[in-house]
Amino acid sequence: MAASAAARTIIENCAIATVDANDTEYASGYVVVAGNRIESIGAGKAPEGLENVVRRIDGTGHLVTPGLVNTHHHFYQWITRGLATDHNLFNWLVALYPTWARIDEAMVKAAAQGSLAMMARGGVTTAMDHHYVFPKGSGDLSGAIIGAASDMGVRFTLARGSMDRSEKDGGLPPDFAVETLEGALAGTEETVKKHHDASFDAMTQVAVAPCSPFSVSTELLKQGAELARRLGVRLHTHGSETVEEEQFCKELFGLGPTDYFESTGWLGSDVWMAHCVHMNDSDIAAFARTGTGVAHCPSSNARLAAGIARVPDMLAAGVPVGLGVDGTASNESGELHTELRNALLINRLGAHREAALNARQALRLGTYGGAQVLGRADQIGSLEAGKLADLVMWKIDGIGHSTIADPVTAIVFGAAAPVTLSLVNGKPVVEDNRLITVDEDAVARDARAEAQRLARIVAQG
Predict the structure, then answer these.
(1) Cβ–Cβ contacts within 10 Å for residue 456, how many?
(2) In 3D, which of 96, 73, 235 has the Cα closest to residue 148?
(3) Which pTM value belongs to this model?
(4) FRET label pair with 7: which of 37, 48, 152, 252, CA 20 to 30 Å apart?
(5) pLDDT tens across 3-25, in order?
(6) Angle at 224 between CA 268 and CA 157, to 5 degrees
(7) How large is the angle between the packed helices 181-195 and 218-231, nearest 10 degrees?
(8) What DSSP designation does 77 have?
């Protein structure tokens, strides 16, 4: 549909942080949305005489930003929150794998709805899920997750994960929690062919995502990379999350994680990895040289005592970095907008102290940086004419923010700001701090019921 014929929404009288290449901002400006695209943006009032204006919004007291982009999550963990709260990563995984290995389609759908709802009502317009647990006979888990995202109305990337290295092979998952190499590759290829949309305004994309070096075989990593590149999709995995992982890789493969990944074809501009906490200068240089991206998950890294990722050094080297919630069994809040603040604060505890990150860098991590690592920076992540209309109106004139003069500082340093409006593909998903695409109360009830059912199954052995 041509822009002149498309229905238009106009937002004006608002502060705007575009997060474009020049970090353009307007103290009082407008955004015109035509169909699913941003038609124009600028200072002052919107142009006069626009046709087909179906909605005009007074944004006084608000900051408009690009929608937040989540780059790492495990939705199914929504129904196992609050467990193993005093464990490091490896002990936490060993404690929870036996529970996770008993999930089924109904549980996964309810958990996905809960995870998505929590993010979307906090300004996430593009979500991502790394799902890697596929118990035998558990149903269509990928379809359940994608269906939940479609119902919510958010843009979505499913990283179809897999595990084939169990305890008997020196891995962490129990033997009954993994797939075969052949089954993992076949299931991944089927999911890509069935669900991946490569178009500009795609609502659903799929990535190839073996879980981690300590839960998958070298052959699965190698063949997974070959599969992704044959199908033209991106690659995702966990990398360099803990000291224990580094020791594991050196003992098993004779290489540190980054060198091991490079040996299996897992560095490149089509790859992004979660965490990357324990990276030396050589590792960071390798990521920068190859364009490999990073999903920074500050709250989860703190929850599991993994350490502080060297985000300032990565950014200085030119590594693409976005933000991730991580699974809600290691980040019980499940929110991404609070990760803007946590990323800034936690990184200031590191070597760079107060110079580590500022408010605008934190906002960029959560928007354009995320779009980069998902391979969608030409479409989302900044507010520019021609890009997709994924944006958020944050209310900053209430008690939590009204005395902070700078709007970007208000939403990053201040309390979690209420979302008055969130548009995805030009369509409202949140209005007045509440989801309008799903029944929040029903989502909460369903997730609670499935969490209780899972607990009963585990208790029965």
Answers:
(1) 9
(2) 73
(3) 0.97
(4) 152
(5) 557 999 999 999 999 999 999 99
(6) 75
(7) 20
(8) G
